[in-house]
Structures are given as C-alpha cells and as structure tokens.
Design a protein that fits this description.
- The complex is a heterodimer of chains A (825) and B (104).
- With 825 residues, chain A is α/β, with parallel strands linked by helices.
- Chain A has 7 domains: 3-111 and 250-312, FAD/NAD(P)-binding domain (3-Layer(bba) Sandwich), CATH 3.50.50.60; 122-246, FAD/NAD(P)-binding domain (3-Layer(bba) Sandwich); 335-404, FAD/NAD-linked reductase, C-terminal dimerisation domain (Enolase-like, domain 1); 425-487, Arc Repressor Mutant, subunit A (Orthogonal Bundle); 497-552, no CATH class; 553-628, Alpha-Beta Complex (Sulfite Reductase Hemoprotein, domain 2); 636-791, Sulfite Reductase Hemoprotein, domain 1 (2-Layer Sandwich).
- In chain A, the strands form 13 sheets. A 5-stranded parallel β-sheet of chain A has the order 5-2-1-9-23. Chain A has a 5-stranded parallel β-sheet with strand order 13-20-14-15-16. In chain A, strands 25-26-29-28-27 form a 5-stranded antiparallel β-sheet.
- In chain A, strand 18 and strand 19 (236-238) form a beta hairpin.
- In chain A, helix 20 runs parallel beside helix 21 and helix 21 crosses helix 24 (776-788).
- With 104 residues, chain B is mainly beta.
- Chain B has a single domain (2-99), classed as Rieske [2Fe-2S] iron-sulphur domain (Rieske Iron-sulfur Protein).
- Chain B starts with a strand and ends in an 8-residue tail after the last strand.
- The chains are: A alpha/beta (825), B mainly beta (104).
- Chain A binds chain B through residues 453, 456, 459, 492, 513, 524-528, 530-531, 548-551, 553-555, 557, 562, 564-566, 802-804, 807-813, 815-816, and chain B through 7-16, 18, 23, 25, 30, 39-40, 44-59, 61-62, 64, 66, 76-77.
Chain lengths: 825, 104
C-alpha cells in the first residue's frame, strides 16, 4: 500500500527532495502531492541573477517543467498556498479552501526577501511603492526588468552576494547603479574588511557601480514615482528604481501557526524531522539544524539526500551532520570565493595573507591543526576548486603553505575544467579527451573508477587521475557516486588495507588463493588482484609465505622486465652505482656473446642489457654471476649516489659508502610501489636525493638530512625533510623504519609521493622518528625479518621453479620488434 | 592437434604452442579447467601466455588489456581473440582443435 506524501514548497529544496526520493524507487512507495506558492514548475533560483544580467533566458533556468510532474505521477498544486497544518488529523489546509490528508509531510517553504523597516517603502493597500522591488522570485525578476528598462538610475540596498549580483544585472537595463550597504564593507558575512575593501575597489573601477558603505537607508523619497533614497546621515541619493536585497528570512509562519517548534527556523533533528514530530520533515532554507540555517544550495542538496535515504528506507539511519559553507560570487569579471573563517579565531590559528591592491587581489587562508578552516579569494580565484576540496574533506595541506595560494614550479597549476575544450586530450598515455570522459558520465557511469575503467583515462602513468576526477565531478554536476571499491586494497577483495591485513592475520592466510577463498564472497579469484596480494602476503609472512607462481606478474616469475616485443631486460645489481673493470669486462663479454641488441645505462646508475629472450635468462645470469638489480618489481630498486667525500672536493659526507650500505641491507624488499633511493654527499645534490622516495643529503658538521616522498617521474615533487641525524647508522635505521611504515600502510601502487602527503609529514615524523605510537620497535623487527628473508632470485637458475618457467611465449610469426640501433658505438 | 603433456602448464598459468599456422596460448586455470585462445594480443602483439588469469579472464602483461577466456571478447575495448577447443586425452596430453574455416 502506498503512503501519501505531501510536500509544501515547490522550490529547489522541495523538488530536489522529491527527485531524490524518486531516484530511490520512492515512486512506488508514495503517492506524492506538492504545493507551490509560485504558479510554475520548478526553476533554479540561483540563476535568476543570470536572467537579470541577460546571460540566460527564462527557459534555461527551469529544472522541471509541468510535464515532469505528470510523468512521475505527482499532483502539483501550483500557485496554491498552505495556511495551516493539522498535526493530529494529519491534514494540510490551503488558501483555496481545500484540505489534503498526509501520512508523511515535508515542509520546504524556503525563505522570503527580508525588507528592513524603511519609511515610504510600502504604499498603504498597494504593497511596495511603485519602483521598489525585492529580488527573490521569477516574477520579481520579470517585474524588475520591465520597470528598469524604462528608467535610468537604480539603487540596490544590500551589499551581500545577492545585492552585488542584482547591481551587476541591473546595469544591463539602465545606465546608473548605486549599491548601498549598511555595514562597513561589502559581503561582510563572508569577507573580512581588507577583502571587502578590495572587492569594493574592483566593483567601482571595473564594473562602474558606485558603492556607498555605512549607508543605512531610512526613507524612500517621492510620492507617486520614486525620486531617491535618504540615508541616516541625511545624504540623498537620487534614483527612480530601488531594489531591496538585504537578506532573507525563513518562511516559518505556517509551521509556527500549526504548533511546530520554531526558533529562527523550524527546528529539526539529524534526520530532518521536525522536533517532537513523527511524520513531519523540513528541508532547505526554512530548516534550523543544530542551530544553523543555510541560505545556499549545497547544504540543501545534502539535506535532500539524507531525507530521501531515510524516507524510502534506503538507509533509515542516514544522518545529516551540517554542511561546510563555501560561496562563490557569480559576477562576470569579479572573482570571489570564500569558505569557513574570514580571519584566525584562535591564538594558534595560522594565517597566510597576500594582497596586491592595484590588481584587486586579496587572498588568505586560515589553518588550524594542519587543516584548512577558512579561505578567501578576491580577484583571483584560480585556487578555489583546490581549496574547497581541502576544506570540505579536511585534506592534509602542503608543507610549503604558500602552495595553497600559488603554483611554485613543478607541474602546471589548476586547470579550469569548465574552460577546457571538449577535444582536449586529458590522458596523454591512452589518448582520452575531455569529451570522451563527459560522454561516459552522461551515459550513466558516475564513479571515477568506473569512468577510468571504461575510457582507460588515468590508467597509464596516472598523472592525470586528479584531472579525470575533476572532470567526472564537473560532468556529473555534483552527482558523483562513491565507488565502494575505491577504498579497497585490491579490486577483487572488498576490504581496505587495515581490515585486509587483520583478516589475513586472524585466519593465517598465507597464500593468494586462500585469501580469495576466505575473504571474497563466493570465493572468486581476480586476476587484477593477484600481484598486490602476493606482495602483501610476502611482506607479512616472509619465509612462511606460500608462493603460488601464478599470483606473480610475469616480471616476478622470471626476475626480469618484460619489453614491448616480449623480450626482457637484464639489470645486474651495482650497489650505489659503483662498479669495477672486472665487472664491466664480464658484462661486455656476455653482451657480445649473446648478441644483446642494446646495452644502456639506466637512470639508477646501472647497466641494462635489453632484448634478451626469456629462454636465455638463466644462462645469462649464470655467466654474469652478479645478483639481480630488481629493475622489474614493485620493490626496493637502487640507491643512486654521487662520488661523495673520497674524490669530490665539495663532498662533506661519504655518500657512496652509505648508499652501498643501504642497498646491501634493503635490496629486493617488496612493497606497494617501487622504492628509489639516493644518497648525495653535499647539498649540491648531484645524486638527485631531493626527488627520491627516500633521499639522504650530507650536510656540513657530519650530519645527514633524510628526505621522503620525493619524485621526478610522471609526477615531480621535492621530498619532505623527515629528520636530520648525526650518523650513518641512524640513517640506515630510519630508512628501514620509514620503508616498513610505508609497506604496511600505503595503498597498492601508491608511491611515497602520494603516501607521505596523504598521511602528512608531521604525522610520519611523529611515528617514525619520535615513536609517538610506540610501534618503532615493531617496525624495525618486521623490517629485520624481511631483510633476513632476502634471497637473490637470479640464483634460481639451475632448475626452473615451475615447468617451462623460461619457455618462450613469443609467437612464431614475426612481430614488430624493437629495432636494433646500428652504429651506436 | 596433440600437444605436450598437461603437466607442462602450472596451475593458473599459460604456455604458448604452435597449432598449425596459429600460435595458441593454453591456460590451465586454478580449478583445473583448460582454456585456449590466440597467443598474441591484438592490441600490440603482447605474449598472452605470460599474462595473469582468474577463472574468467587473462590480462595481457604489456598494457593490461583483459580478455574473456571463454568468448575471446575483450573487456577493455581491444579486438577479440580466437577461441580454440581444448581437452586432455587418455595419455594426459593436451589436444587443441584448429579453427574450422567458418570460424576464421
């Protein structure tokens, strides 16, 4: 049996809530009746300023026209106002005399324009003085446009968001606009005084709107026609149109008259239920939640979702916890974005402030306990999207606080998704355009990972993932769905890393197949998850790990890196990049004997033999008789070093010896991503230690600096200083401890350049250096166990580990081969 | 065509064989069942017998394109693979049937 759902209010909140209910299958649960004060379908009120400014026409702002209601079986009473609710009989009474029963009631009556008490603003019996308008509804806007076109000078009362947008819009229809603001600076709810003054200068100079602050309007002048307004200090501003945009007041009269609890708004609990009521709910601007009222659209979307989840039973326990408020001014040529605090509020709050008044730029950010709690951008809002994300989600902030406001070198800064042409290539590895991503979203795929799977965008080097996410969010217009799998360690086992590790320990799962059997509902194995699980189990169990070779990626099955033509590359270990004439001779002889197509120096200071067929690998290892350099795994790779103090006349520390010692100890350690290290003998940084997963820099006085989270591949990042220590031994200990912390806590394929900022360098330092969590000894012990389990995989060559381990998988037909370079010598 | 013994293929892995003029990758899944598809990835010529498998798909080691082992269809938008019938004879040897002309 369906329930009767009555909605009072057909504005953005009421209609959105109904849409959310329908999206959850609520059309079968409820017979829906809606009452709207305005005689229309449902339109986007936010866009009224665009209609006034002439950049959008009326048709463009309608969200749902009347046919939408019919199509969804909704009875709409447009232009009918409800004047009373009988909570006991469960009926609502309309001004047209009708009574409608309900089982569930939603009040979404929104707000009305607030009109301050001003002499002469009303005409007895005729409403507002002719020539005086408020700016709230489509009818208000139409009337204002019609009137303004025939007049010349307008005054807008109110210098907030709405007042500024109204003033800018009116310029489209008449020649002179003055903006009066009762407070000391514009947008005082959102902006501090310096920001407000900067904005005022821009509005006056760039837009040509005259602004008067501290202007309390006391009287509308003119008997039949408006001739001007009078201020408290006696000044008179001549005008023939007055627009009042002095704020809004929630429409709570019906609720109050019907006995609901009303303070500033109608009081609701976390499920948007009116206080002390079982069947009455409230959403939107008229709702007062935990003491707060919201006059913006984003909180209202959040509320609508919670209410729909709750009412339809999709998630009966859904709760609304309040919203973070961020605003943007929609006035062409004047960029203003603001969120959270305008100024520091606690003595410990950090404030970053930048002003360039001549260019109309004022920016600040307020940080508390390492999180963004406020930001203001006037005149340059390019960082708005990034800051809003950090503000909303409480992300860890860059160590260089200035990066919050400026791009300090590195990869180019924020790109505005909106401004990107459709054919612009987003993923340069797989050639995916913005248009292709948007089309996939429009076809109904609304998770970031889903779009990445379908288009392959972001599946190459991964640098564009952030941009892909932004485009998906933009294209889905705030309707992005969370992919539950996004938090899983591997796609085929539904658990984030900490739970996965706990379950593996609890059930003592020591092989990849046992993980699938025990932890996946239905027990299905997943090819894409095998490599990540194999690495994790090896890290956790060391010698006890039950190695199933099919769980390994081909590189790990044959200890070499597969190349585009199916051959492999062979990179012998060369600790710290130091070699000997005897080693070089041996490598040369092997390369010559087997006609190795290319011999090349690697970026990690080693020698690469490229183009080796799989079946020749064991023989080449035997002839080289050198250990594996691990140039193929998600593992510890190399330690690059400079010549250090032995030969270099600038070196202040023996970087070569330390680099060799580190590589000796941590060689071959597997992890969630590869680990590239460097040790450099002085801050000239010839070994590029600042851009390594872990880089060590000798500084004068026998000390060493340790940097972590650096990168210089697809992503470029300077590492964060973890610690400065006095001895090489301490470097080796902290290196092991950090790498173990990374191995245990990073997501699969998450490199340190993403991991360190995600955790925050302060937190990493607290754990690894200061042992704040008391786990340092455990980390050291776990790493020591892995170190002890090291075996050189290239020793596995006398007998294949599995039948046909080194048998060719190459076809007999000729494929395009990597060309042999002639005459390189 | 009769190929080598099935024990040549470790569980969960694949090996490549010549079947007439075709190169065929034969996989022995972890549940013991056999699958046979073209050995060459249609995307960029990758050796599919070196790929990782589960009971449904094989993933090419070069660019991670995935293919359904039963239908040969790519789940990542690449061209399809040929699928071959494969079984084990009384002697525990693999037998792969070449494609009949109508299937080519």
């Amino acid at each position: 049996m369906t329930q009767r759902l009555v909605v009072i209010g057909n504005g953005m909140a009421g209609a959105r809530t109904v849409e959310e209910i329908l999206a959850r299958g609520g059309g079968d649960q409820f017979t829906i009746t809606m009452f709207g004060d305005e005689p229309y379908g449902n339109y986007n009120r936010i866009m009224l300023s665009n209609v006034l400014a002439g950049v959008e026409d009326e048709a463009g702002i309608f969200l749902n026209d009347l046919s939408w209601y019919t199509d969804n079986g909704i009875t709409l009473h447009a232009g009918v106002r409800i004047e009373r609710i009988d909570r006991f009989a469960k009926m609502v009474y309309a001004t047209d005399g009708t009574a409608t029963p309900y089982d569930k009631l939603i009040i979404a009556t929104g707000s009305s324009a607030f009109v301050p008490p001003i002499t002469g603003i009303h005409r007895p019996g005729r409403g507002y003085h002719q020539g005086v308008f408020v700016f709230r509804t489509l009818d208000d806007t139409r009337a204002m446009i019609r009137y303004a076109r025939e007049h010349e000078r307008a005054v807008v009362i109110g210098g907030g968001l709405l007042g500024l947008e109204a003033a800018r819009g009116l310029q489209n229809h008449l020649s002179h606009v003055t903006l009066l603001h009762a407070m000391g600076h514009l947008m005082n709810t959102q902006l501090n005084e310096r920001a407000g003054r900067t904005l005022q200068a821009t509005v006056e100079e760039k837009l040509g709107i005259e602004v008067v602050v501290d202007a309390m309007t006391t009287e509308i002048l003119g008997k039949h026609q408006v001739t001007g307004v009078k201020l408290k200090d006696g000044r008179v501003i001549p005008c023939d149109v007055v627009v009042v945009a002095a704020g809004i007041r929630p429409n709570t009269q019906v609720a109050a008259d019907s006995g609901l609890v009303v303070e500033r708004g109608i009081v609701v609990d976390d499920q948007m239920r009116a206080q002390d009521e079982d069947d009455i709910y409230v959403v939107g601007e008229c709702a007062q939640h935990r003491g707060a009222l919201y006059g913006l659209v984003a909180p209202l979307w959040d509320q609508a979702k919670v209410l729909a989840d709750h009412l339809t039973g999709t998630d009966p326990q859904a709760e609304y916890h309040g919203s973070q408020i961020a605003t943007k001014l929609k006035v062409a040529g004047v960029d203003v974005a603001s969120m959270g605090l305008q100024e520091p509020a606690h003595p410990d709050d950090e404030l970053l402030e930048f002003a360039e008044p001549k260019k109309g730029v004022y920016q600040n950010v307020v940080i508390r306990d390492g999180r963004l709690v406020g930001a203001t951008l006037v005149g340059d809002a390019r960082k708005a999207a990034f800051l809003m994300q950090a503000f909303d989600r409480g992300l860890a902030l860059p160590e260089q606080r200035a990066e919050l406001l400026f791009d300090l070198g590195g990869p180019s800064g924020e790109v505005s998704v909106e401004d990107m042409p459709d054919d612009e290539q987003v993923c340069n590895c797989n050639g995916v355009s913005k248009g292709a991503i948007c089309a996939t979203v429009q076809s109904g795929c609304k998770t970031v990972t889903g779009v990445m799977d379908k288009t392959r965008a972001g599946k190459g080097c991964g640098t564009c993932k952030g941009l892909v996410q932004k485009i998906v969010e933009w294209a889905a217009d705030g309707q992005v769905e969370e992919d539950p799998a996004a938090s899983w360690y591997v796609p085929g086992v539904p658990m984030p890393k900490p739970e996965l590790m706990a379950a593996i320990r609890q059930y003592e799962l020591k092989s990849v197949s046992s993980v699938f059997a025990m932890l996946v509902p239905g027990g299905a194995e997943d090819a894409k998850s095998k490599m990540g699980l194999a690495s994790l189990l090896k890290m956790m169990w060391g010698d006890e790990y039950v190695d199933e070779r099919d769980a390994r990626f081909i590189n790990d099955r044959v200890h070499a890196n597969i190349q585009r033509d199916g051959t492999f590359s062979v990179v012998p270990q060369m600790k710290g990049g130091v070699t000997t004439p005897a080693q070089l001779k041996r490598i040369a002889e092997v390369a010559e004997k087997h006609d190795v197509p290319m011999v090349k120096l690697t970026g990690g200071q080693r020698i690469d033999l490229l183009g080796v067929p799989k079946e020749k690998l064991p023989q080449i290892w035997a002839e080289l008789d050198m250990p594996s350099g691990y140039a193929y795994g998600k593992s510890f790779r190399t330690v690059k070093t400079c010549v250090g103090s032995d030969f270099c006349r600038f070196g202040v520390g023996d970087s070569t010896a330390l680099g060799i010692a580190i590589e000796e100890r941590y060689q071959g350690i597997e992890g969630p991503g590869k680990m590239k290290l460097a040790v450099t003998g002085c801050p000239r940084n010839c070994a590029e230690a600042y851009v390594k997963d872990l880089g060590v820099v000798a500084i004068d006085g026998g000390k060493w600096e340790i940097y972590i989270g650096g990168a210089a591949g697809a992503h470029v990042r300077k590492g964060d200083l973890l610690a400065t220590v006095d001895s090489a031994d301490e470097v080796i200990t902290l290196t092991g401890r950090f790498l173990q912390y990374y191995r245990e806590n990073a997501n699969w394929l998450e490199r340190t350049y993403a991991f360190v900022p995600r955790i925050g360098i302060d937190r990493v330092r607290a754990i690894v250096v200061d042992d704040s969590d008391g786990i340092a000894a455990d980390l050291d012990a776990a790493m020591a166990k892995s170190v002890a389990a090291y075996r050189d995989p290239w020793k596995e060559r006398a007998e294949p580990a599995t039948p046909g381990q080194f048998r060719t998988s190459l076809p007999l037909i000729v494929l395009p081969q990597v060309p042999v370079r002639e005459g390189v010598s | 065509m009769r190929l080598g013994p099935v024990d040549e293929i470790p569980f969960g892995e694949g090996r490549a064989y010549a079947v007439g003029d075709d190169m065929v990758a034969v996989f022995r899944l972890r549940d013991g069942s056999l699958r046979a598809v073209s050995a060459v990835c249609p995307h960029a010529g990758g050796p599919l017998a070196d790929g990782q498998t589960d009971t449904k798909v094989v993933i090419c080691p070069l660019h991670l394109h995935a293919f359904d082992l039963t239908t040969g269809c790519s789940t990542t938008g690449a061209f399809s693979l040929n699928v071959y019938a494969v079984h084990v004879d009384d002697d525990n040897h693999l037998v792969v049937s070449p494609l009949v002309p109508s299937e080519v």
